Amino acid sequence: MYSITLLSGTIWCGLGNAAPNDDALGIFRLTDNCCREHDNCPVSISANEEKFGLINTGFFARSHCDCDGRFYRCLKRARTIIAHKIGFTYFNLLRPQCFRKEHPIVTCLEGYKKSRDRCRVYLVEQSESKQWQWLTTNYSKRS
C-alpha cells in the first residue's frame, strides 16, 4: 500500500506502508523493522472497527498494549534520530490508547508530572473478571 504520510527513508513508518513485500525495509532499516513489527501486530483494532466490545473511534489502528510496548523498546534499541522522532511522534504527540484484557479500572492513582490526563498507575478491581478495555500508553518521555 502506498502512503504519502510515510517518514522519508522508511517504507513502514507512517499511515500505511510502501513495502513491495513483507521482507522489504527502507534505508533506516532498524527503525523500519520496528514499524513493520508494529504494523503487523496480531491483535489490533482498525479505525471505526469494533472488536472485543471496544470501538476504535480514532483515525488509525490501535494496538494491543503488548505490541505498543514492543514497539517502544524496539525504537529505543535502534538508538537513531529517526527512531527517536518516530517514538516521540507516536507516543508523545499522537498519544494513542492501547487495549488489553485486565481487571476493571476503578481510577487513575498516578498520572505523569507533565501530562495529568495520562495515567501511569491504575487502581483495578481485582475481585472482578478481566475485561477488554482501553488504556493509555505508558511509554511517553517521563519527567
From TrEMBL:
Domain Phospholipase A2-like central: 7-101
An example molecular function term from Gene Ontology annotations: metal ion binding
Enzyme class: hydrolase
UniProt keyword annotations, A-Z: Calcium, Disulfide bond, Hydrolase, Lipid degradation, Lipid metabolism, Metal-binding, Secreted
EC number: 3.1.1.4
GO biological-process terms attached to the record: arachidonate secretion; lipid catabolic process; phospholipid metabolic process
Cell location: Secreted
Needed cofactors: Ca(2+)
UniProt xrefs under Pfam families: Phospholip_A2_2
PANTHER family: RH14732P
Protein name (Swiss-Prot/TrEMBL): Phospholipase A2
Species for this entry: Megaselia scalaris
